[in-house]
């Protein structure tokens, strides 16, 4: 088994999980719940497609069932937002829904287009810096896209807990991954100049 098998299976059932929640809490008339289902559920489907078409090498590592279940448990924390939306019957105002959908859409573009550029560039020219396109000013465009994606549907809960969970993931998983990536990139020619003119994670900020 590989890490991606546990990640992909979790992403794949997100749509079904939220749909079951809506049935349990009888939230079929809740517009916010349907928007959450569309955003988080579609993201899970897109992730599985991405994993099959242009996979990320870091998730190709073999793993046992023990760690695989840890992955499943950690990813399940992201479902808290959906549970809060459905169980509390959250009714977000139209402008707030539009904001979340717009944030999510921009995140999908940055995340998936960035991963596709990285996959294609490294396939054609392995062990080289990617310094153009979506990576011209930001070294982790894909992670920035994920930030917008998770904020897009997490904020629909109108509760602090999904944001806290996202911050926990960023601190425990995303930033360590970025630091490991920086260590690899630092061995490549031109890294110092590239680092000087780009941001790590947040455009124009950091």
Structure characterization notes:
By secondary structure, the chain is mainly α. The chain has one domain (3-196). Helices cover 69% and strands 0% of the residues. The chain has eight helices and no strands. It has helices at 3-24, 31-53, 65-76, 80-87, 94-124, 141-154, 160-185, 191-196. Helix 1 packs antiparallel against helix 2. The longest helix has 31 residues, at 94-124. It is globular, with a radius of gyration of 18 Å. The mean pLDDT is 95.
E-strand count: 0
How many alpha or pi helices? 8
The biggest sheet amounts to: none
Outline, from the CA principal axes?
globular
Which whole number gives the mean pLDDT?
95
As a whole number of angstroms, the C-alpha radius of gyration is 18 Å
Given helix and strand content, the structural type is mainly alpha
Span between termini: 36 Å
Order of helices and strands: HHHHHHHH
* Tally of structural domains: 1
Low-confidence spans: none
Taken as a percent bin, the fraction of beta residues is: under 5%
Helix content: 55-70%
Topology:
Layout: H1 3-24, H2 31-53, H3 65-76, H4 80-87, H5 94-124, H6 141-154, H7 160-185, H8 191-196
Helix pairs in contact: 1-2, 1-3, 2-5, 2-6, 5-6, 6-7
List keywords for this structure.
single chain, 206 residues, mainly alpha, 69% helix, globular
What's this model, at a glance?
With 206 residues, the chain is mainly alpha-helical. It has helices at 3-24, 31-53, 65-76, 80-87, 94-124, 141-154, 160-185, 191-196.
